[in-house]
Amino acid sequence: MVNIVILAIESSCDDTSAAVIYDAKILANLTASQAVHQQWGGVVPELASRAHQINIVPVVDAALKKANVSMRDLRAVAFTRGPGLIGSLLVGVSFAKAFALALDIPLIEVNHMQAHVMAHFIDNRPGFPFLCLTVSGGHTQLVLVRDYLDMEVVGETLDDAAGEAFDKTAKLLGLPYPGGPLIDRYAAEGNPERFTFPEPQTSDFDFSFSGLKTSVLYFLQKEMKRNPMFVTENLPDLCAAIQRTIVNILIKKITRAALHFGVREVALAGGVSANRELRNRFAQLGSEMGWKTHIPPLEYCTDNAAMIAMAAHYKYLKGEFCGQDTEPLARYEIRSST
Ligand code: KG4
Ligand code: ZN
Q: Which of 6, 156, 218, 296 has the fewest C-beta atoms lying within 10 Å of its C-beta?
């Protein structure tokens, strides 16, 4: 080992996170989440940027202390360049640049989506090639992973992300934001067969979730006209049906892509991988097909700086540094780096 100590910053959405990695081992991973968005039913970009501004110094400070690392030990500073909210990204990018300039150490820019995949290497070693489904409030992406930084997006959502589908349908049911975990909770007591919602027909490995939201809306409008208590009386069954539809779509696409690309290892990443039905069906799929399945601990599935640090470690090994003129990118495609 070569004593690579890196400080990593994640600020792409509403979590301000800092991590310290030492020779590919995470020493600290601390996140300040922003409760301020809950009352608005979704992330408010302006409020997110302001909260990052307040949180970033204490979070970095606490991460260095927890890791027992001083600023002088750091070999590089890594940051999320994108994709994400531009105002949120700017806080992390500017902080990282100032930090690197003051310490005279290199900067490493990291693609947030690539980092979600790299979270798999924190406590685990999936075998290459594998297929990773990254599902969160902002993304739904199927990634074919050939090597640590060599990955290709083979499918993604054409409209809403899977987490967004959970949150938006939950809102229609009168549930607070974020509704995904609540749908999961109510669905556990419901019958998924009582109601059915159509699954979209999308080509190859792409996803679409906006039709589900619309069909749930029309269905509820129709039923509520007949019985204003319809949602209250049927909440667990409605949640179970919505969850079943979303999970069906995800599992079908993973299966189709894994068979097409001939991979024997499949992985989940992102906050939606906390969903119990998805986890169960994913494990079942693995045992039926003889595929190895991987899901990182939840701390590394939701947005976090440890995954940024892990991506940065491999970029450091390849000498992939960036300049002070690097700008954040609201849209940032994963590109194979080999
Ligand atoms: O990765 P994440 O923490 O943040 C980003 O969106 O980047 O993911 C949050 C998303 C939200 O849409 C939330 O509703 C969803 O993940 N989620 C869940 C569950 N836990 C979180 N969706 C369904 N079931 C869950 N148990
Ligand atoms: Zn994310």
A: 218
Distance (Å, whole) CA 269 – CA 303: 10
Q: Which protein residue's CA is at the shortest distance from atom 2 of ligand 1? A: 271
Q: Per-residue pLDDT tens for 158-215?
A: 999 999 999 999 999 999 989 999 999 999 999 999 999 999 988 899 999 999 999 9
Q: Which two tokens mark 42?
A: 């979704």
| Domain formed by 5-118+303-317, architecture | 2-Layer Sandwich (3.30)
pLDDT at 42: 75
Residue to substitute in 166, 184, 301 for testing ligand 1 pocket (most ligand atoms within 8 angstroms of CB): 166
What is the average pLDDT value for the chain, to the nearest integer? 95
Which superfamily does 127-295 belong to?
A: ATPase, nucleotide binding domain (3.30.420.40)
How remote is the CA of residue 323 from the centroid of ligand 1, in Å?
Answer: 33
- According to DSSP, the β-strands at 140-147 and 76-82 are unpaired
2: nearest Cα among 316, 338, 320, 322: 316
Is any ligand 1 atom within 6 A of the Cβ of residue 167? yes
62 Cβ contact partners less than 8 Å away, ≥ 6 residues apart: 18, 28, 30
